[in-house]
TrEMBL record:
Residues 6-120 form the Response regulatory domain. SUPFAM superfamilies: CheY-like. Residues 132-197 form the HTH luxR-type domain. PROSITE patterns: HTH_LUXR_2, RESPONSE_REGULATORY. InterPro entries: CheY-like_superfamily (IPR011006), Sig_transdc_resp-reg_receiver (IPR001789), Tscrpt_reg_LuxR_C (IPR000792), WH-like_DNA-bd_sf (IPR036388). GO terms for molecular function: DNA binding. Keywords: DNA-binding, Phosphoprotein, Transcription, Transcription regulation. This is Two component transcriptional regulator, LuxR family. It comes from the Bacteria. The modification 4-aspartylphosphate is found at D55. PANTHER family: DNA-BINDING TRANSCRIPTIONAL ACTIVATOR DEVR_DOSR (PTHR44688). Pfam families: GerE, Response_reg. One of its GO terms (biological process) is regulation of DNA-templated transcription.
Length: 206
């Protein structure tokens, strides 16, 4: 369940952290708070899913700088900004970076909790896509080539003719693809491949 995923609250104001933690925990969310981005980076495994509620203006690394670091590390952590100094351009830039939402303090509890739940669904999908991408990158160049041709709708014999290899070789590669991608059907493999292709497209455009 999404509620089991961690929510990290990063804000240098003790009173803000206490009030937000109390409020969000009343919605069943699992909150861990930090008084700085540096403390957060020291303690948290950035490869795992979760949600980061990030104050924009903090001593040391700012909220946007923390977010940029997460993007650079391809972390699945979803980000929601909290600020007492928000403006429209800042919100636009935050959303361009992939932030799930942007709240000015004091945030409405119900709306913030709703945004966190949305963020936790987002982070689960991102983490799953990271795993799919790792699986894809572990394939051999030939397996990737054949996967791409399968996605184009080519049959085994057509793939064999296109690559000038025996059809039996294509069949072996196809079986290895199914095993390597841990799928039980062609439809499932194509669904995963479409998510991988979209992820690669987004990274190329970043």
């Amino acid at each position: 369940m999404s509620l089991e995923l961690p929510v990290y609250l990063i804000d240098d104001d003790d009173s803000v952290r206490r009030s937000l933690r109390f409020m969000l925990e009343s919605y069943g969310l699992k909150i861990t708070d930090f008084d700085s981005a540096e403390a957060f980076f020291t303690a948290v495994d950035l490869t795992l899913p979760g949600c980061a509620l990030v104050d924009v203006r903090m001593p040391g690394l700012s909220g946007p700088q923390l977010h940029l670091e997460l993007v650079a590390k391809n972390s699945p952590l979803a980000v929601i900004y909290l600020t007492g100094h928000g403006d429209v351009p800042m919100a636009v830039e935050a959303l361009k970076l992939g932030a799930v939402d942007f709240f000015q303090k004091p945030a409405d509890g119900a709306k913030l909790a709703e945004a966190v739940l949305k963020a936790l669904e987002h982070t689960k999908a991102h983490h799953q896509d990271n795993q799919y991408l790792e699986t894809y990158q572990a394939l051999t160049p030939r397996e990737r080539e054949i996967l791409n041709l399968i996605a184009q709708g080519l049959k085994n014999q057509e793939i064999a003719d296109s690559l000038c290899i025996a059809m039996r070789t294509v069949e072996i590669h196809r079986a290895n693809l199914m095993k390597g991608m841990q799928v039980g059907s062609l439809a499932e493999m194509m669904l995963i491949y479409s998510r991988i292709a979209e992820r690669l497209r987004l990274e190329d455009n970043r």
